[in-house]
TrEMBL record:
InterPro entries: Imelysin-like, Imelysin-like_IPPA, Imelysin_sf. Transmembrane segments: none annotated. This is Imelysin-like domain-containing protein. It is found in: Cell envelope. The keyword Signal applies. Its main location: other. It comes from Xaviernesmea rhizosphaerae. CDD domains: Imelysin-like_IPPA. Residues 1-34 form the signal peptide. Keywords: Signal. Residues 67-367 form the Imelysin-like domain. The keyword Signal applies.
C-alpha cells in the first residue's frame, strides 16, 4: 500500500505532524515529550494526559461517520452537476442554465463539507487543486480560463485533454466563471455551445476526481485503515499520539483555512466606509462565499462532535471540549446568518460588524483548539499548530 503522508509536504512547516518527517522521530524534535533531564523519549511513550483508550473509536467515527460519507456526498453532487451541464449543452435554455447553477451551488456546499480533509488521497495527483484552485491572487487562472474561451481551445472540450492542462482551468472556480462570469448568459443559447462544452468537461473532471478520492477512502486496506489502526507498521500513524496529533491538526488547519483563505482576503478594512474587497472572496460571482464559509465551519464542528474528539481529554479538562463546541456553534450560526452575497454583507454596516465578530470568534476557536485542547492532551508543548513554531 502506498504510504499516505499525514499532510502534504508543501505544508510541513505549519504542521505538528511535519516534525515526524523533519526529525525522523515519532515526537516533535524531542521537545514535546522529552523528559526533564533531556534523555531520549521512550519510543513507547504516550502523553499521560491523552486518553488513548478512546483513540480507536474517535478515529473510526471520524472516518466512517464523517469523512467517508462526506466524499460520497461529494461524488453524488458532482454526478448531478455533470448531468446538469450535459443537459444544458444538449438543450440550451434559461431553465437548464438555472438547473446547472443550482447543481453548481450544491457541489460547492458538498465540497465545503469535506474540504477540511487536506491529507491522504486528496493531496495526490493535485486532486485538491483540480477540484478547487484558490486563492488565485494574481488572477493567473482567470486569465487562462478567459483565453480558453476567447480562443475556443478545442482541447478544453474533452475531459482527458482538459485534465492535462493547468489545474487552474479545471476546477470549481473555473466552472463558476463559465456559469456566472462575463458572457455567462450565452450558455443558455446556441451561441454559447463552446462555453457550455468547456463547462461540461470541467464538471466531468471534477466528478472523476471526487470519485477517485472516495474510492481511495473506501478501500479496505487503504488510508481509512491507516487512520483507524495506529501501530508501528502503519505508514501514517505509528502510535496513539501521532493519530491524535493528526486529527487535531486537521481541525486546527481547517479553522485556519477559514480564517486565512475564506474570510481575511475580503475582510481587509471591512469596518471602514466602503471597506473590504469582495472580489477577493471565493465564489463571489455566484454569491456563494458565505455558503462556503458556513459549510466549512459546520463540517469542522461535525468532525469534532461526531468523532467524539472530546473523549481524548482527561476528565478534569472536559470543559475545554464544551468551550470548543460552544465556539463552533457561535461561528456556524454567525456564518449562516450572513449567508448572502459578500458584496451585500460588506455594504451593510451592521453585517460588516457581525462579520468582524465572526472573524474574531474564528481566531478564538483556532487558539482554543491549538493551545487549550492540544495542551490538555499533551500534544503541543514546544510546538504550535497555528504558527509552526
Amino acid at each position: 500500500m502506498r504510504a499516505f503522508l499525514p499532510f502534504p509536504r508543501r505544508r510541513l512547516a505549519g504542521l505538528a505532524t511535519a516534525a515526524l518527517l523533519v526529525c525522523g522521530s515519532a515526537f516533535f524534535c524531542g521537545q514535546a515529550f522529552a523528559t526533564q533531564d533531556n534523555q531520549d523519549p521512550d519510543p513507547n511513550f504516550v502523553p499521560h494526559l491523552l486518553q488513548a483508550d478512546h483513540l480507536p473509536q474517535v478515529m473510526a467515527r471520524a472516518v466512517d461517520e464523517v469523512i467517508r460519507p462526506g466524499y460520497r456526498a461529494m461524488g453524488a453532487s458532482t454526478a448531478k452537476l455533470s448531468q446538469a451541464l450535459g443537459g444544458l449543452c444538449a438543450a440550451p435554455s434559461p431553465a437548464h442554465l438555472a438547473e446547472a447553477r443550482a447543481a453548481f451551488a450544491e457541489t460547492v456546499r458538498s465540497w465545503a463539507a469535506i474540504e477540511f480533509v487536506q491529507v491522504g488521497p486528496v493531496m495526490e495527483d493535485a486532486r485538491m487543486e483540480r477540484i478547487l484552485f484558490f486563492p488565485d491572487r494574481k488572477g493567473l487562472g482567470l486569465k487562462q480560463v478567459q483565453r480558453i474561451l476567447a480562443e475556443k481551445d478545442q482541447t478544453a472540450l474533452k475531459p482527458d485533454t482538459l485534465r492535462a492542462k493547468s489545474v487552474a482551468v479545471q476546477g470549481l472556480t473555473s466552472l463558476e466563471f463559465v456559469l456566472y462570469g462575463t458572457g455567462a448568459d450565452s450558455v443558455a443559447t446556441a451561441e454559447g455551445a463552446f462555453r457550455c462544452g468547456y463547462g461540461a468537461a470541467i464538471a466531468t473532471n471534477v466528478q472523476r476526481t471526487a470519485d477517485e478520492i472516495a474510492a481511495a477512502w473506501e478501500a479496505p486496506d487503504g488510508v481509512a485503515k491507516a487512520w483507524k489502526q495506529p501501530g508501528p507498521d502503519n505508514p501514517v500513524y505509528r502510535d496513539a499520539s501521532e493519530a491524535a496529533t493528526g486529527l487535531l491538526g486537521v481541525l486546527v488547519h481547517g479553522v485556519e483555512n477559514v480564517r486565512d483563505q475564506r474570510i481575511r482576503p475580503f475582510l481587509a478594512d471591512g469596518l471602514q466606509e466602503g471597506g473590504g474587497r469582495p472580489k477577493q472572496a471565493i465564489y463571489w460571482r455566484s454569491g456563494l462565499t458565505m455558503a462556503a464559509v458556513s459549510g466549512n465551519l459546520n463540517a469542522l464542528k461535525r468532525l469534532f462532535d461526531v468523532s467524539g474528539a472530546g473523549a481524548l481529554l482527561p476528565e478534569d479538562k472536559q470543559t475545554v471540549a464544551a468551550e470548543i463546541d460552544a465556539l463552533f456553534t457561535r461561528v456556524t450560526n454567525a456564518a449562516e446568518a450572513l449567508n448572502r452575497p459578500v458584496e451585500e454583507v460588506l455594504s451593510d454596516r451592521s453585517a460588516r460588524s457581525q462579520l468582524d465578530v465572526l472573524s474574531l470568534n474564528v481566531e478564538t476557536l483556532l487558539d482554543k483548539l491549538n493551545k487549550d485542547f492540544g495542551g490538555a492532551i499533551g500534544l503541543t508543548a514546544g510546538f504550535s499548530f497555528a504558527d509552526g513554531d
